[in-house]
């Protein structure tokens, strides 16, 4: 069942099977970091990128849940119509992203 608008669905994937779960709860966040803070304070689990929790997982005070259902993220991609039409601001962003990826 699809929902129009509303909250973000948690997305899972395993061996070609995809699953979306709409989670209802008492708390709603607009930042992954506030989700992590709430989870660390015992309010529940957080659906956030693994790298945000990497230190807590390494320390052993938090664990991955449904790890085998966690989809991977290959990174961001930039699409633009023509190299000749790039604005100076766009060039700065591309250069910064290239530098960050090294």
User: What is the N-to-C order of secondary-structure elements (H for helix, E for strand)?
Assistant: EEHHH
The percentage helix is: 25-40%
Average the pLDDT over all residues and give the rounded result.
83
Q: Tally of extended strands?
A: 2
Structural class designation: alpha+beta
Strand content: 5-15%
Which regions contain 5 or more consecutive residues with pLDDT less than 50? none
- Count of DSSP H/I helices: 3
Shape designation: elongated
Head-to-tail CA distance between termini = 42 Å
Oligomer classification: single chain
Q: How would you sum up the major sheet?
A: 2 strands, antiparallel
| Rg over CA atoms | 18 Å
Keywords: DNA-binding
Organism: Bradyrhizobium ottawaense
Domain LysR substrate-binding: 6-100
Protein name: DNA-binding transcriptional LysR family regulator
